[in-house]
Automatic annotation (TrEMBL), chains A, B, C, D:
<dbReference type="InterPro" id="IPR000192">
    <property type="entry name" value="Aminotrans_V_dom"/>
</dbReference>
<dbReference type="GO" id="GO:0008453">
    <property type="term" value="F:alanine-glyoxylate transaminase activity"/>
</dbReference>
<feature type="domain" description="Aminotransferase class V">
    <location>
        <begin position="105"/>
        <end position="332"/>
    </location>
</feature>
<keyword id="KW-0808">Transferase</keyword>
<feature type="binding site">
    <location>
        <position position="341"/>
    </location>
    <ligand>
        <name>substrate</name>
    </ligand>
</feature>
<comment type="similarity">
    <text>Belongs to the class-V pyridoxal-phosphate-dependent aminotransferase family.</text>
</comment>
<keyword id="KW-0032">Aminotransferase</keyword>
<dbReference type="GO" id="GO:0019265">
    <property type="term" value="P:glycine biosynthetic process, by transamination of glyoxylate"/>
</dbReference>
<dbReference type="InterPro" id="IPR024169">
    <property type="entry name" value="SP_NH2Trfase/AEP_transaminase"/>
</dbReference>
<dbReference type="GO" id="GO:0004760">
    <property type="term" value="F:L-serine-pyruvate transaminase activity"/>
</dbReference>
<dbReference type="InterPro" id="IPR015421">
    <property type="entry name" value="PyrdxlP-dep_Trfase_major"/>
</dbReference>
<dbReference type="Pfam" id="PF00266">
    <property type="entry name" value="Aminotran_5"/>
</dbReference>
<dbReference type="InterPro" id="IPR015422">
    <property type="entry name" value="PyrdxlP-dep_Trfase_small"/>
</dbReference>
<protein>
    <submittedName>
        <fullName>Alanine--glyoxylate aminotransferase family protein</fullName>
    </submittedName>
</protein>
<keyword id="KW-0663">Pyridoxal phosphate</keyword>
<dbReference type="InterPro" id="IPR015424">
    <property type="entry name" value="PyrdxlP-dep_Trfase"/>
</dbReference>
<feature type="modified residue" description="N6-(pyridoxal phosphate)lysine">
    <location>
        <position position="193"/>
    </location>
</feature>
Amino acid sequence: MTADPRPALFTLTTGPVNCYPEVLSALGRPVSYDYDPVFQRFYQDLSLKLQRIMGAATVPVILQGEPVLGLEAAAASLVGPGDHVLNLVSGVYGAAYGGWLRPHAASMAELRVEYDRIITPDLLRQALRDHPRTTIVALCHHDTPSGTINPLAELAEVVRDHGALLLVDSVSAYGGTRVDLDLIDMLVTGPNKCLGCPPGLSVLAISARAWDHMKANPAAPRGSILSVLDWENAWQAGAPFPFTPSIAELNGLDAALDRYAAEGPEAVWARHARTAAAMRAGVKAMGLDLWAAEEAFAAPTATAIRLPEGVDETALRDLMQRDYGVVISSGRGETFNRLVRVGHMGPTAWPMYAVVALTALHGAMSRLTARPLRLGAAIEAALAA
Amino acid sequence: MTADPRPALFTLTTGPVNCYPEVLSALGRPVSYDYDPVFQRFYQDLSLKLQRIMGAATVPVILQGEPVLGLEAAAASLVGPGDHVLNLVSGVYGAAYGGWLRPHAASMAELRVEYDRIITPDLLRQALRDHPRTTIVALCHHDTPSGTINPLAELAEVVRDHGALLLVDSVSAYGGTRVDLDLIDMLVTGPNKCLGCPPGLSVLAISARAWDHMKANPAAPRGSILSVLDWENAWQAGAPFPFTPSIAELNGLDAALDRYAAEGPEAVWARHARTAAAMRAGVKAMGLDLWAAEEAFAAPTATAIRLPEGVDETALRDLMQRDYGVVISSGRGETFNRLVRVGHMGPTAWPMYAVVALTALHGAMSRLTARPLRLGAAIEAALAA
Amino acid sequence: MTADPRPALFTLTTGPVNCYPEVLSALGRPVSYDYDPVFQRFYQDLSLKLQRIMGAATVPVILQGEPVLGLEAAAASLVGPGDHVLNLVSGVYGAAYGGWLRPHAASMAELRVEYDRIITPDLLRQALRDHPRTTIVALCHHDTPSGTINPLAELAEVVRDHGALLLVDSVSAYGGTRVDLDLIDMLVTGPNKCLGCPPGLSVLAISARAWDHMKANPAAPRGSILSVLDWENAWQAGAPFPFTPSIAELNGLDAALDRYAAEGPEAVWARHARTAAAMRAGVKAMGLDLWAAEEAFAAPTATAIRLPEGVDETALRDLMQRDYGVVISSGRGETFNRLVRVGHMGPTAWPMYAVVALTALHGAMSRLTARPLRLGAAIEAALAA
Amino acid sequence: MTADPRPALFTLTTGPVNCYPEVLSALGRPVSYDYDPVFQRFYQDLSLKLQRIMGAATVPVILQGEPVLGLEAAAASLVGPGDHVLNLVSGVYGAAYGGWLRPHAASMAELRVEYDRIITPDLLRQALRDHPRTTIVALCHHDTPSGTINPLAELAEVVRDHGALLLVDSVSAYGGTRVDLDLIDMLVTGPNKCLGCPPGLSVLAISARAWDHMKANPAAPRGSILSVLDWENAWQAGAPFPFTPSIAELNGLDAALDRYAAEGPEAVWARHARTAAAMRAGVKAMGLDLWAAEEAFAAPTATAIRLPEGVDETALRDLMQRDYGVVISSGRGETFNRLVRVGHMGPTAWPMYAVVALTALHGAMSRLTARPLRLGAAIEAALAA
């Protein structure tokens, strides 16, 4: 092994992902002054384009930092001293989010499942019965460190029936699968996953109820980078920005949205689903195991593969990069060194990238485990999926 | 006048500024996975390059949002319940910063001067005598809404003599004029002004004393976008990032630093100074007044021009953009509609851009005031400055 | 003066010119295989867009080299052993073109005027009476080394009345001023002047008569880079290319055409005309002379300024670049060291660039001649033009 | 099948190829005036860099059009009325080149082999004995439509022993395999194949003998795009260009050379060889046949695969693009519909791209032939090669 790591030929991670070429071109557009009326018009048009494409009830808020900013700001802005939060935890990210929810709330309860399983409507109904005062339910849609996806639409109905607000982290699923915003009060996502942009922005789609709730929250940040409220009217040409927006990132988002609309969201979701199906079929045919306890739990935008006994994840990923130029993601926290993850997001959400990932995975894994692994079968299964 | 504003030909603002072409090209580089070892090496090299070019005592911290993030995070991280802050206020930004300092401190005092004047060492000495318990002094180096620059080096000596820590906002001066970090404990800047990058990152140069102070601060944020401490070791290849860095912006910063070093900081500062001198000479020869009470108070990176009685700043800037394609900046807060500002930052810090600004300013101003204004004299004075 | 020349801040030449930002972005688009059906569709769409925007009778031919290729290929393809050519010479480029026309023709006559004058319809009528067998008339529309423009529309009527074919070099005028193709049989231009692209392509608009004439020409090149005929059907998706087209340049042209159409050709021509008028007014008010014997002869896309006695053009241009960052063009051949030229093409065709050029010209010229030169008057005249 | 062809995900053709990201970024650099001294310095540095990297005896000439221009210009410039040419024909391109050599020569003989075979030193020696007056030998190094590579170094020795000049078309091999220029008098290549640039330039490496021969050639073009002689001194800063060079393409070439030198030519050649070896092993293991009569004849930069009886090449390539997003090349002329070709050039010269090509080839071919084809075996063989 040489001292220098080999540059990636294929970045098949759960993000940052490869950007679309249209996005890379757009990042190099001239940078405007934020009070230039031409830029203000652009920002308004971009915000309305976002609303139209997302089908959002109000104009989405763009925050000027990658989605962890959106998530922290959403928690700080929405959750107030009168709120009782129920945090749904099916993985590392959902669990961690509790740390941002709890300090702002009157109380926080958790509904936990194993990290290879998902939150079901029945479990949620029971939890709401146990915590009847719940005013806000928080959900991590795709808990990326596990590659598992929760049944958002069904859970949203349960929350709505209860009358609570639903706050969703859909950072790594939005844009790669259908998300209906009708029953979601605050959805946090970013353009840097399935939309194929670099990290640097958050997008928040907010219901009218959630706006009212934030405005009534005496502790909601104002005059801070953590404020959502400050940005309420910033989309309007002529209205001031709370601070300077990230112009180049916005140019990239603009190109990404145009591209997404031109290809057609349904077509984009379909190839994400096909790629994930190919990956899962290939993993199983190769002789490895999915992390998800049931295949139906596995996300359409990333596939988590359980590491065989004794295989070190760092050794595996190093070999994949060194010998095949393929970069994939590790686990995080409790899933670290128990699984590896292949992302299918944006420009790499095509089945051929599953073939590439399976090929590199097979080559590296074969040197680290005695378990018999079948490459030909894996690829044939992937292509037949 | 048409409904559509005319696109800017010359963005001569106090920021966002035009980017250098090298930066625009670099923004379109492929986006790497942040845990790709090649990227981690890049991030380490970039951080060390930043330290070398800045002459910083420790490896500077890059925060992933434009400098308002850096400023808010610096205040929250450095200032703790045991601190007595003296905030030096010579303008709108200095005054506003008090709002981020005060909530974290045991107490905060202010030293205020008129917004067309500067903080002098004598005033500061007196203030420290009045507030002997002061542990932290906060200074806005170039208070952009006034276009005035405080004598940083001399003030820093006074602070050091007192034994307090010095926290400096040098967002819109750093890179356009000499800044010696030896006596500064925390300097917040960003690549989006004189370095010619888009807005999207903050840079913090931090003394060893300031690191110790932050670590001893029980209220310093952790696990938040406002945390500085979380990023202490992030520059080291192999160390984890607190969250995903803004890869494209970092690529731009890398190109900007290379460019800055290749031209030579002294040469860069010299052309900023020459451009500002040209602008001031031109403004005076034209028959207008500088905002700064004394010319020596005027910044080398922006020039604020006092509006003649009865001239509306919006009308003025609209005419300049419509008829000449020249975009300049308005005042802010107390200086709004009392002055306009021409930035000389990065790629537009060349005297010819002062000629462009003066030409457009003359053309528009002549239609809004009866005061006699001389264009030829202005340009000749600018070129002779 | 340092050893290193100073990088240009303002490239105000007669070409290569600054490119539009949209073009620079488009040059970085991914490069397709030329037999990829998606590319073939793109090439067809681009060719038809070119026809629509130009108002051409047939689909224009794109040749894969800067316009000297187009000019040499046009001469070789159109002019055959049965042709009697009349070459109209009002400048260096028109004269030089005779060298490419004569070898292919049965005979070639020339109509010559002084290089600060233009070809008039009367002169042309007389020349055609003197050379009644003329089958092809060749005209350089804007003879760039003189900055003079011939009255294309009127001359075209004279040629049509005679029955000859009209071959026009409009490389440095097309896109910056109105050109009606109805009476032109072969117009050669390129995207690298007023359309704001880099040099690398030629565009030929060809009448049905000219196609017939080329096809009947037994000496017209085939199987050569000089062949126009080989490209007749290349625009059709599915038809083969004679050789690989210059993909990146075509991407740039595509963006340039979109930009041209979006701004509106009339608006583009108007700002070229305004900029040239500003430049001429400024030159005269400064105390210098236009090269053109009458102002009406001066081109809308470049302004030639007569050098005062004893002023060396190289010294002048070196000073302008060194001290102001402004790059302009020299004369060529017979006009070398007798004039200098300022281009107003594409992105620099705005009056403020005339101010920039006049400022630098004044500054440098003042050091090289004792003639009194007035800067203020020049700029005021330019802005009033 | 939809009406719209599907955009390529993988362009694995024999050119145009994908460009390196560094090249795409460089294409968007600002465009300079060609008489700007800074550009002239750049052009000189670039030319000398090219000489150094190529190991050329004289400064290589850059012609401003893709390599067909270089090939036509080389023939027209080098071959004169006193020359007896021996054209070595092992494929379609070698044969076609005769059409550009013959018209300029006193005589032209051909040495022909079947298009799946190569020219051997013995055959060449015999041909030179048969044509002892031969003054120039022309060789197509890699006859791309056959994917076969001639033994350049050995043939060059035979030519040198004879005393003739050797003119080599190495367009699609240079940069992907070792080429020693010592015994080559004129090598024509281009940056648009293994160097990973877009098409638009030719590069000619020329021996001192060949310069003398061209200068002594009374028919060598001058004042034409076909002239090589015109460009002899153009590389020198301060010397005029015969016409405007293609600035953006030169910027791309500059970045490509830097990248090539940084990776190291030996490393670049090695991965081209490994990828071709992987492809050949995979093709054979799949159950298909190489076009080359012997595997040793197959090129390191492209692999030609013989089409099974009854398989239509258009149907095959359409399926590969539609269902896998993989674009490969067809045959040309005599090889059309008898083979397909996968390029391994520049950024796609990595074995994983052979896996991608084999996967798509298998998927499409399986639907067009009853021949049993093994995907797993193919990929395993490719990876083991």
